[in-house]
Amino acid sequence: MEDSKVANLVDTHAHLDMMVRNERELPRVLEGAKKEGVSEIISVGIDLASSRKAIHFAENFDGVYAAVGIHPNDANLFSGDALKELEGLSENTKVKAWGEIGLDFYRDYTPRKVQYDAFEAQLQAASKRGLPVIIHARDALSECIEIISEFSKRNGIQGVFHCFSGSTREATRVLDLGFYLSFTGVITFPNAKGLRDVAAFVPIDRILIETDSPFLSPVPFRGKPNEPGRVRFVAEAISRLKKMDFLEVALCTTRNARALFGLSVQ
After folding, report:
1. What does the pLDDT read at residue 51?
2. CA distances to 27, 183, 234 from 218, in Å
3. 203-212 as b/e: b if 16+ CB within 10 A
4. Which of 65, 36, 94 shows the shortest CA–CA distance to 226?
């Protein structure tokens, strides 16, 4: 493994509220991440409760930032009142993104019309606030790209397609939107050669790295709960794919994260 002692990594997508049963357990997770060179973590909301929790963690722990939003699988919880509360939460200075939002046609927990309406309303709110968006697009990548493409013609919007799993062609469409693509531990899975080819194709200045903790643990931890410290395994995989020095990948992806989310240099 590459030396991570002087690495400076950002886990751009973790669900800290899902990783711990209570707040007293969080310092252990954050200390473990710090030992692996992870200086900043974005804790991402999927509904109102998790968005509030993300802000609470961000306000009380150094290096933690928050994203607020309603996930497509929870779009049935979206309403005018919910949007108003999210808008209020988004005013917090530790909130650096709106998300995760988008479409999920794999689970189909909520009707697609409901998902579309919640997605478009949250894009509008994020644009109004000047926040980047974190896009969830499971079995709905083309549809998400189309919505953002149309939205961008009327409004300015930046963001990232989180846990990207599309083709090189779809990656090109995302790049054309001016968005970043984020990769997870999935690129370490033996059967993920196609995705590794996509990661090798995407320019390093448009790549973010994430864990999606507690999900998608990389090899050799596959099947176990994920943690932010394991984002280094994603960076190591990208360094091999691009034949770049690990510390250079760490520098580039951290620079990208700070540029998109407006993170403070620690």
Report:
1. 98
2. 22, 11, 7
3. ebebbbbbbb
4. 36
DSSP label at 243?
Answer: T
Q: How far apart are CA 264 and CA 64, in angstroms?
A: 11
Rounded to an integer, what distance in angstroms lies between the CA atom of residue 215 and that of residue 129?
A: 29
Can you give the pLDDT at residue 107? Answer: 87
Instruction: Give the Cα separation of 146 and 7 in Å (integer).
Output: 37
> CB under 8 Å to 238, separation ≥6 — which residues?
183, 187, 199, 204, 207, 209, 244, 249, 253
Residue 164 structure tokens = 């990207």
Taking CA 25 as the corner, what is the angle to CA 68 and CA 1, rounded to the nearest 5 degrees?
85
The answer, as to whether pTM is greater than 0.90, is yes
Q: Is the dihedral of CA 104, 105, 107, 112 positive or negative?
A: positive
Identify the CA nearest to 104 among candidates 91, 89, 119: 119
- The structural domains of the chain, ordered by start, are 9-261 (3.20.20.140)
Residue type, 20: V
pLDDT confidence band for 190 (50 / 70 / 90) = very high
CB contact at 8 A, 12 and 261? yes
Express each pLDDT in 85-96 by its tens digit: 999 999 999 999
